[in-house]
């Protein structure tokens, strides 16, 4: 979807700022609402799915500005969130295979029984909340800078959006890893294939942190 919007906005004629205002306001409101919904979720996979809505709203915002910096930020955000969201879904599946439930209040305390998977959970959530020096923060800062140049007023909803993203990411991490383990769950150790799958998500993110010019361009 982000790729399609990028191709369409590139061929659209230049429009006044007031023409794009309703669309940008709607995307900002949608991003905040998606993040608020994440805070109210009890289903782990639904929480991750709604988080994608919040991040993709930022991609739409960047593309609507029709600036090179906005296009770069949108590309970085799409790649970074694609890897991060997929990694988080894989982690959610590992939790589901052991607990047979996606309810956060039941699948708790996995840090004590699965410490290696808890490390992957921590890395995935830190990347999701765009903690430095992840590639996610480069995308978010590019989008924020573009929108601030377009209209300084947008910094207020963007700041709220960033705060909500960090809040539900920490909520997801604490709800699944901390607390008393559920004794009804059979917590067998993590398989090598699971660690390999998660490593294949993290390696491109680390590579982009080391050399972001691969997607930002010279």
UniProtKB/TrEMBL annotation:
The protein's Enzyme Commission number: 7.1.1.2
Location of the protein in the cell: Mitochondrion membrane
UniProt keyword terms in alphabetical order: Electron transport, Membrane, Mitochondrion, NAD, Respiratory chain, Translocase, Transmembrane, Transmembrane helix, Transport, Ubiquinone
One GO term (biological process): electron transport coupled proton transport
Membrane-spanning parts: 20-40, 47-65, 71-92, 104-123, 154-175, 196-215
Membrane protein topology class: Multi-pass membrane protein
Chief location bin: mitochondrion
GO CC annotations on file: mitochondrial membrane
Coiled coil: none
Catalytic reaction list: a ubiquinone + NADH + 5 H(+)(in) = a ubiquinol + NAD(+) + 4 H(+)(out)
Molecular function terms, GO-annotated: NADH dehydrogenase (ubiquinone) activity; NADH dehydrogenase activity; ubiquinone binding
Pfam families named in the record: Proton_antipo_M
All copies of domain NADH:quinone oxidoreductase/Mrp antiporter transmembrane, residue ranges: 1-165
Cited function: Core subunit of the mitochondrial membrane respiratory chain NADH dehydrogenase (Complex I) which catalyzes electron transfer from NADH through the respiratory chain, using ubiquinone as an electron acceptor. Essential for the catalytic activity and assembly of complex I.
Family of the protein in this entry: Belongs to the complex I subunit 4 family.
Name of this chain's protein: NADH-ubiquinone oxidoreductase chain 4
Gene: ND4
């Amino acid at each position: 979807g982000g790729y399609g919007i990028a191709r369409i906005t590139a061929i659209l004629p230049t429009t006044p700022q007031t023409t794009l205002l309703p669309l940008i306001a709607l995307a900002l409101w949608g991003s905040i609402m998606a993040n608020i919904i994440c805070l109210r979720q009890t289903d782990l996979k639904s929480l991750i799915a709604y988080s994608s809505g919040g991040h993709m709203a930022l991609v739409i915002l960047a593309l609507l500005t029709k600036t090179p910096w906005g296009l770069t930020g949108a590309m970085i955000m799409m790649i970074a969130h694609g890897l991060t969201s997929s990694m988080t879904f894989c982690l959610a599946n590992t939790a589901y295979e052991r607990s047979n439930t996606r309810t956060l209040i039941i699948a708790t305390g996995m840090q004590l029984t699965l410490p290696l998977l808890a490390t992957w959970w921590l890395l995935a959530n830190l990347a999701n909340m765009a903690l430095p020096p992840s590639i996610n923060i480069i995308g978010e800062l590019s989008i924020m800078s573009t929108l601030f140049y377009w209209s300084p007023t947008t910094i207020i909803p963007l700041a709220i959006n960033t705060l909500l993203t960090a809040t539900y990411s920490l909520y997801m991490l604490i709800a699944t890893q901390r607390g008393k383990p559920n004794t009804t769950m059979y917590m067998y150790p993590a398989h090598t294939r699971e660690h390999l799958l998660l490593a294949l998500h993290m390696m491109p993110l680390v590579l982009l942190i080391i050399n972001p010019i691969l997607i930002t361009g010279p």
